[in-house]
């Protein structure tokens, strides 16, 4: 029995899922503390600042993450050193660009009336500099499928942030600026930890090659567009709500959206484990295996999300009250959460179709697809606001870009290797049963 437990804990799927469960749980705890300690307006300001910060950071993460794993996973020792060193070179260049934007804007930051934008232009450069080492460490760790290390990195980052928030509350110094300083400090601590453990492979910088830099750049120039455009969905929602309905409405909308981390847990976990498998299958020129792996992950997530969404819709008011407190009770937050849960059934298809297109070296299709999705999202948001003048209209509009992305991705992958949409659910059901068997230690489940 003990051996089975140890094998389960060491399983990469378990480690990835457990890591995302823990981190999403800590993330919800952090947001609970922030939502309960700050006013509706201040919470909206923090949401706007952080979402803008992370969307711009997509220039770096979108450029490097997928490209890094694609060229790193399963490669020789010499090749991995070249890729890691080249990624460090590009990472330093991109970070310098992001920092320079903050430096140039710094003299004018106090003239900006919106506090969220002011915080971004004044402090974003520090975040990008502080977070670079731990970000590249996560790229290396994902490429090597060392998901226990990934958990340690994330615990260092999110755990230290929570500790700082608790200390601010205990000593009566809770304010939006102190939350920001705590956030910056937690990123610096995490990078120091990653460097001390030698997980970022910064020493490979000397092994960078012009060819590897070109490989990463040529792939990344499309994947960054895909990632940046995809993340623009959230920021476009936030900007439209911020400008039309105000920061209090933004806080309410984001609270419902924040709870979608419960859906993002399996999505991120399966993406972390699935991408190296997809890359390895593609590098072995096996189209059949690439599609099989894509079906497995897409189908399993889709099958699992159906009962989860039903339960979530029934209990939506409870987590809203727990996280936001009484001031969010009776607002639109719970119904926004229900709308997102209903649409989440399509998330696995959109996510893994896009991931597979990147892996099979079709990031250009992904890029154009996401541009179409972004246009649909913005148009739907404005239409939803015009019809309802509430966050409901913008939340309901979420289904349009997701459905558009799934349809385009399905069409593009069928040009690579033909498959039916229903076959995804069939494979997903079979793989879910197999995973349950493995977890329970049984050879076969009847029925």
The largest sheet is: none
Structural class: mainly alpha
Q: Could you estimate the helical fraction of the residues in percent?
A: over 70%
The sequence of SSEs as H and E is HHHHHHHHHHHHHHHHHH
Shape: globular
Q: Give the count of helical stretches.
A: 18
- Mean pLDDT across the residues is 84
Ends distance: 25 Å
Care to count the β-strands? 0
Kindly provide the radius of gyration, computed on alpha-carbon positions and rounded to a whole number of angstroms: 22 Å
Poorly predicted sequence stretches spanning 5 or more consecutive residues = 443-447
Estimate the strand proportion: under 5%
Q: What do you see in this structure?
A:
The protein is 83% helix and 0% strand. It is mainly α and 447 residues long. Helix 4 packs antiparallel against helix 5 (115-144), helix 4 crosses helix 8 (210-244) and helix 10 (261-283) packs parallel to helix 14. It is globular, with a radius of gyration of 22 Å.
What are its keywords?
single chain, 447 residues, mainly alpha, 83% helix, 0% strand
Short description:
This protein is mainly alpha-helical.
Please outline the helices and strands:
Blueprint: H1 2-10, H2 12-37, H3 40-72, H4 77-105, H5 115-144, H6 147-170, H7 176-196, H8 210-244, H9 247-258, H10 261-283, H11 287-314, H12 317-324, H13 333-343, H14 347-359, H15 363-388, H16 391-396, H17 399-416, H18 421-440
Helix pairs in contact: 2-6, 2-10, 3-4, 3-5, 3-8, 3-9, 3-10, 4-5, 4-8, 5-6, 5-7, 6-7, 8-9, 8-15, 9-13, 10-11, 10-14, 11-13, 11-14, 11-18, 14-15, 14-17, 15-17
């Amino acid at each position: 029995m003990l051996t089975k437990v140890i094998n389960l804990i060491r399983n990469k799927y378990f480690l990835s899922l457990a890591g995302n469960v823990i981190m999403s749980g800590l993330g919800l705890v952090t947001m609970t503390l922030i939502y309960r300690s700050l006013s509706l307006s201040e919470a909206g300001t923090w949401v706007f600042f952080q979402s803008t910060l992370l969307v711009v950071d997509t220039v770096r993460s979108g450029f490097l993450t997928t490209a890094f794993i694609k060229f790193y996973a399963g490669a020789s020792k010499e090749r991995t050193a070249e890729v890691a060193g080249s990624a460090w070179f590009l990472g330093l260049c991109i970070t310098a660009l992001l920092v320079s934007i903050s430096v140039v804007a710094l003299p004018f930051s106090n003239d900006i009336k919106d506090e969220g934008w002011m915080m971004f232009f004044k402090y974003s450069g520090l975040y990008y500099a502080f977070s670079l080492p731990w970000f590249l460490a996560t790229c290396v760790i994902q490429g090597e499928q060392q998901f226990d290390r990934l958990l340690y990195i994330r615990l260092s980052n999110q755990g230290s942030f929570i500790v700082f928030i608790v200390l601010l509350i205990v000593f009566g110094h809770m304010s939006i600026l102190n939350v920001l300083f705590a956030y910056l400090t937690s990123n610096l601590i995490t990078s120091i930890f990653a460097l001390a453990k030698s997980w970022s492979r910064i020493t490979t910088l000397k092994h960078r090659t012009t060819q590897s830099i070109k490989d990463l750049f040529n792939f990344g120039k499309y994947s960054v567009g895909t990632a940046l455009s995809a993340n623009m969905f959230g920021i476009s929602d936030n900007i439209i709500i911020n400008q039309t309905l105000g920061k209090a409405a933004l806080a309410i909308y984001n609270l419902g959206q924040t709870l979608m981390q419960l859906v993002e847990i399996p999505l991120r976990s399966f993406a972390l484990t699935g991408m190296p498998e997809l890359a390895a299958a593609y590098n072995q020129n096996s189209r059949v295996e690439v599609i099989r792996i894509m079906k497995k992950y897409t189908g399993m997530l889709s099958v699992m999300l159906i009962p989860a969404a039903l339960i979530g819709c029934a209990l939506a008011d409870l987590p809203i009250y727990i996280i936001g407190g009484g001031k969010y009770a009776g607002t639109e937050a719970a119904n926004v959460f229900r709308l997102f849960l209903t649409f989440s059934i399509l998330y696995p298809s959109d996510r893994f179709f896009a991931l597979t297109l990147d892996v099979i070296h079709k990031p250009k299709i992904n890029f154009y697809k996401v541009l179409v999705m972004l246009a649909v999202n913005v148009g739907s948001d404005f239409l939803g606001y015009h019809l309802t003048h509430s966050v409901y209209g913008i939340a309901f509009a979420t289904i349009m870009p997701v459905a558009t992305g799934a349809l385009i991705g399905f069409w593009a992958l069928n040009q690579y290797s033909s498959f039916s949409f229903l076959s995804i659910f069939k494979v997903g059901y079979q793989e879910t049963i197999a995973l349950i068997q493995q977890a329970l230690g049984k050879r076969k489940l009847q029925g």
